[in-house]
Amino acid sequence: MPSASFRAVGEHFARLTPSQRYAFWASFLSWSLDSLDFFLLIMCRTAIAKDFGVPVSAVADAVFLTLVFRPLGAFLFGALADRIGRKPTLIINILCYSAVELSCAFAPSLTALLVLRALFGIAMGGVWGVGAALTFESLPREGRGVFSGILQEGYAVGYLLAAALFGLLFNGIHIGGFSLPIGWRGLFIVGAAPALLVFFVESRVEESPAWKEAKLRKAEGRKEPVLPKLKSYAPNFIFLVILMSAFCSFSHGTQDGYPTFLTKECGFTAGMVGLLGIVYNVGSLAGGFVFGTLSEKWGRKRAIICAALLAIPIAPLFAYGHSPLWLGVGAFLMQFMVQGAWGVVPAYLTELSPGPVRAILPGFAYQLGNLVTSRNLYVQDKLAVRFGSYSPVLAGTVVVVAVTLAIVTALGRESRGVELEAV
């Protein structure tokens, strides 16, 4: 099955024009590097807590604030993208999150870091919706599920890069007798590198054809405010928020606390935690490819439901493995399913969103889902203290959230193959 998925990816990419490929890669890379910046903090939670002399659970507030402010970013940048275009908004967005990430490296206190992570949340919140609109309005309808699976796994690529950088650089660069300490602050400086992506976007990426068509049609018409447009799509919007709340619980519930579980409870070194992070993010990539491709044959709903339910029997291995090998196998399989379900999301949400609000509605719903579940890591930390272990918390999260996601998805409508109209 994976080999068939990879063949499908190659076939669909071969049919794209250069401008379509550039649009896709701009969105993919902007989401990947945004994810890198988010997960650098996840990987460094223990070190940040030690540096500021606070409990690890206190640093969870940084994750909480990022998730809380992401809906604001989705709304602001989505509205901007519907007004001035997808391309210029994406450039502004990349520069914003890169600048904030660099600032985090020089935070003098935990309070300052929390403020900066809230600002990072605003910047991070805009990227997904703007990038998805640019991508799916530029690409052909055929193979949309395949590209969805790849695009969403930019999130896993970012996590993989964060794990690799943490494992390789956190303890410093050692060359002969020379040693250069890096630590968490040095990693945040490296995390500002995505700013360089704007040169590629500016020089190679074209504006979305659908947005340009809509702009021409509305040139003589009256511009509608954003909020009334959103209100007219309220039933669809509410469903998407509920759906994305389940999705966000599925991903954050299996990812955000896992490095802490491996570090504090399993006693693994930074190198081992980084290696396992790479392993399970490879699983994420494979899952997104496979289920994104399957959604072209099965439909979006069936692919999501299958991936969600298949995560349940993996939960014991994922949470109770007694060695790096078995934990690695469990985490690989878990993220294969978690990100397999997520691989369908960019296409599914874009297809369910009307043209006039396509840059704002999917991203806004996605980030409101993050807001609903923003206390997930805090609750997991507290439950782990109560139970004396992360294992039952991680396993229980998988079962409850997977069943919930399957039920909510089943209540929605199928969208495979719909046309993405301009207005």
Features:
single chain, 423 residues, mainly alpha, Growth Hormone, Chain: A, two-stranded antiparallel ribbon, 2 strands, globular, MFS transporter, transmembrane, membrane
Summarize the structure.
The protein has 22 helices and two strands.
Descriptive overview:
Keywords: Membrane, Transmembrane, Transmembrane helix. Residues 23-416 form the Major facilitator superfamily (MFS) profile domain. The chain crosses the membrane at residues 22-42, 62-81, 90-108, 114-136, 157-176, 182-201, 233-252, 272-291, 303-320, 390-411. It comes from Acidicapsa dinghuensis. This is MFS transporter. The chain has 423 residues and is mostly helical. The protein has one domain: Growth Hormone, Chain: A. It is built from 22 helices and two strands. The protein has helices at 2-14, 18-43, 45-52, 56-84, 86-104, 110-138, 144-152, 154-169, 183-190, 197-204, 209-217, 226-232, 234-255, 258-265, 270-298, 300-310, 315-320, 324-342, 345-351, 361-372, 376-387, 391-411, and strands at residues 173-175, 178-180. Strands 1-2 form a two-stranded antiparallel ribbon. β1 (173-175) and β2 (178-180) form a beta hairpin. α13 runs antiparallel to α22. The model has no long low-confidence stretch (mean pLDDT 86).
